[in-house]
Amino acid sequence: MADYVRNLWYMAAWDHEIPDGGMLSRTLLGEKWLIASLSDGTYAMLADSCPHRFVPLSKGKLEADVIHCPYHGLGFDRTGTCVHSPFPGPPPAHVRARTMPVILRHRALWFWPGDPNKADARLIPDFGFVDRDGMQRSHLVIQGHYELVTDNLMDLTHIEFLHVESFGVNGSIFAGRQSVVTDESGAIWNNWDMEAVPAPAWAAPMVADGARVDQWLYMRWHAPAAMALTVGLSRTGTERRDMVVPEMVNPHIITPETSTSSHYFYDHEATREAEVLARKVFIEEDEPMIEAAQQSLGTRDFWDARPAILETDAGAIRARRRMMQLRRAEAADEAQVGN
Amino acid sequence: MADYVRNLWYMAAWDHEIPDGGMLSRTLLGEKWLIASLSDGTYAMLADSCPHRFVPLSKGKLEADVIHCPYHGLGFDRTGTCVHSPFPGPPPAHVRARTMPVILRHRALWFWPGDPNKADARLIPDFGFVDRDGMQRSHLVIQGHYELVTDNLMDLTHIEFLHVESFGVNGSIFAGRQSVVTDESGAIWNNWDMEAVPAPAWAAPMVADGARVDQWLYMRWHAPAAMALTVGLSRTGTERRDMVVPEMVNPHIITPETSTSSHYFYDHEATREAEVLARKVFIEEDEPMIEAAQQSLGTRDFWDARPAILETDAGAIRARRRMMQLRRAEAADEAQVGN
Amino acid sequence: MADYVRNLWYMAAWDHEIPDGGMLSRTLLGEKWLIASLSDGTYAMLADSCPHRFVPLSKGKLEADVIHCPYHGLGFDRTGTCVHSPFPGPPPAHVRARTMPVILRHRALWFWPGDPNKADARLIPDFGFVDRDGMQRSHLVIQGHYELVTDNLMDLTHIEFLHVESFGVNGSIFAGRQSVVTDESGAIWNNWDMEAVPAPAWAAPMVADGARVDQWLYMRWHAPAAMALTVGLSRTGTERRDMVVPEMVNPHIITPETSTSSHYFYDHEATREAEVLARKVFIEEDEPMIEAAQQSLGTRDFWDARPAILETDAGAIRARRRMMQLRRAEAADEAQVGN
């Protein structure tokens, strides 16, 4: 279960999670890493385990962009080089901390666990919309494999069941038309169009009594599990750009913590009410369901458990297949290198 | 440790544990199952893991004898057939939930995890005595392999040590005579007869001062671990049917929850006092001892740990040997099917 | 990780941890053992798992130097022989509890998990200094492999970082000279001499203003991990025996609890202040660091994790190498016995 695809950008944290000039420790892809905020506004990412006696460097001090081990005082720079020793003589050159490329983009830190020479920043998916006013960016951990979370997000029909109390939906999703497309950037879109349906409860006050609306839910997916949801609503018969409310786009970015748990990065309006709703949906509704699915799977691989496939899984399955292809390609590359 | 014998009736629950028209989720033989109470008074038993995305069906709704998944709304009937889909078109016929035969008998639900064609209801052991007034039927979980619980029950000499405070015993059990017999139904009886011994504390007021009594403790065992204890007491020199108090029979039915934990189904008089005593005996006295034995065994098989065998183990060992024969027979059958 | 060297003396407990005429249960080298205080002032050590049904004998009763099982009443003497049965007839001679040699010395109980014929009491390292007035002997458990604790103690330079708040050190340790020597008893000494350094904060009132001192920290190690720390301080230019305060010696004796946790036996002055300081240093400073190192190592062997080696590790590495030699020698002996 732990054969992560390595040559991809993964999200490590929101920028506000790392204190200015400070460090954050986080388990990512099964290992502890620290993210350090440096004086030039960039970041460094080091294995959070001193190469000398394996203690967490993040419990030490960050001074002048050098991370000092809390145990015996060795200091490491952003490249993982030991640049300070408390003892006479030069720092031991053979002592090196592991590092990964890390880049700040769209208020998020992105890291590349594979070959650093392939870490092209242009491959980071576009989440430019994240950087807007009035939003609060949040993080939680879900006790399930990251692809179970992808399944959840790439099939939004579950909102009629799991989130029926939170969203006041009315069954109109079942009248929707699903389309799954892959765009030129390689993103997979799972699109759900509902035409001439009754307005959802939250929008009813904004449309004429009894008037029909068109609604769309478009989920964009980039490997490994960086998703963006677009929600739109227009009066039926009008142009789609004549929307009842402005189209909303939100990030749903998933990063494996371990083979059975996932980081979930999302945002919501910076109000107490929106925060409470988001937590209800994610923590009380989605999380227990995904965790129960994980427990049911246990240590089995998803496919070994012979899941039934529904038509509505088309987007989720295309994403899973993409990840499988990437895993196989990396395994083949490694086998070749081994020869 | 998890090679359960499958072609046997196991007890899943007392009938009152399943709400009318509702569901109960329970881990049995290492897997989660749900028991649903249907409108015709019978029950259904389905794997508590939706065949689509493995979430617990028991968290969904039971409506008109159809179990609706809480995640994406598929509905399953008692045969595990998908009979409802929220989307247009027929329900997906290839999506099936696993089921097991389940029968209500003697206020208990009995399930058959093996070949359904062999699930003959006449093989359910007779616990007819359970259905009597004034009794409360209870359930607890013990953190130990079910055969460690069998050992406990098939050698009641431990009441002189483990339950000495609860039962006010007086050592007379050591003057007893043990006999182990197999009856025509295949049940193994571990019988303990104490002749001309002082009356136990609880019976003393009912016999003449200093008069001797005959006491008997008969434990009946059916595979895998369905036991019934008969306790009797008569004045020495009288016929056994001339009892001081009516003979008492109580169920002690054990079902594996996992390879290291067990369901324990028992009953007691429906008084607060009897409930407190039963909980003291089972939860404070037996449970910690069996749990400690399990921890000491760890993942080792019982026989690999080379237990010392005492004469008083005769009944317990005969039951263990029976289970071993059944396991071997099933393994041989499976090997043959494989050829 | 669990290939303990068996032909060595390990410390099990301080004498005051075992009640007079009572028992202590403790996990040692991955197994539960009981230590019983006998009427002649000596001790017995038995596997804390009855050979009959594996329950903890320590939950039973110790009467007249016989340990009675709480489950079915078998009684065992100090040799592990079953000397009592509640049933008619002689006790079952084939039922034996495992034992280990155990000796009281220097207020501590020492046990020998290997071949009892090799258990020569003269091999117990000398901790005679432990038996002095005004000291409190203590015990705690550290969630790390015992050799990670050895590493900690055999490289005291960490006090400048990890204990900088507790000990008010001032960097003078970096001016020290390390020497690692093996004495005729086989003990490895990691010695740290600091000459003509400023007095540490605690000693400043006792030396003339601005006067320099010589300080020494000598850690003595015996296999597997029985250590003693000598701390001394004299005015620079005087003889070392002309000390500012009397030389202090303290035990730091480590015994594996499991392959990832360790017993730590230490002492300190019998004052509330000294107790608080010791707990701060061991529990708040050392323990979390060693536990984090263990978590980072996970199930990997120390050497498989390719630790960087520093000059200051010389003592720790010599101790690790000694343990490796002892392990290999025992493995070779066992292989030979197998032939």
Outline the structure in words.
- Chains A, B, C: It holds the Pfam family Rieske.
- Chains A, B, C: One of its GO terms (biological process) is methylation.
- The structure is a homotrimer of 339-residue chains.
- By secondary structure, chain A is α+β, with helices and mostly antiparallel strands.
- Chain A folds into two domains: 10-124, Rieske [2Fe-2S] iron-sulphur domain (Rieske Iron-sulfur Protein), CATH 2.102.10.10; 131-328, Naphthalene 1,2-dioxygenase Alpha Subunit, Chain A, domain 1.
- Chain A is built from four helices and 17 strands.
- Chain A has helices spanning 146-154, 164-167, 272-297, 314-338; strands spanning 10-14, 23-28, 31-37, 43-47, 61-63, 66-68, 75-76, 82-84, 102-105, 108-111, 135-142, 177-182, 188-198, 212-222, 226-235, 248-258, 261-269.
- In chain A, the strands form four sheets. A seven-stranded antiparallel sheet of chain A has the order 11-17-16-15-14-13-12.
- In chain A, a hairpin with a 2-residue loop joins β5 and β6.
- Chains in contact: A-B, A-C, B-C.
- The B-C interface holds B 148, 151, 155, 157-158, 160-162, 171, 174, 289, 292-293, 296-297, 305, 307-308, 310-312 and C 32, 49, 51-56, 59-60, 68-73, 86-88, 92, 94-96.
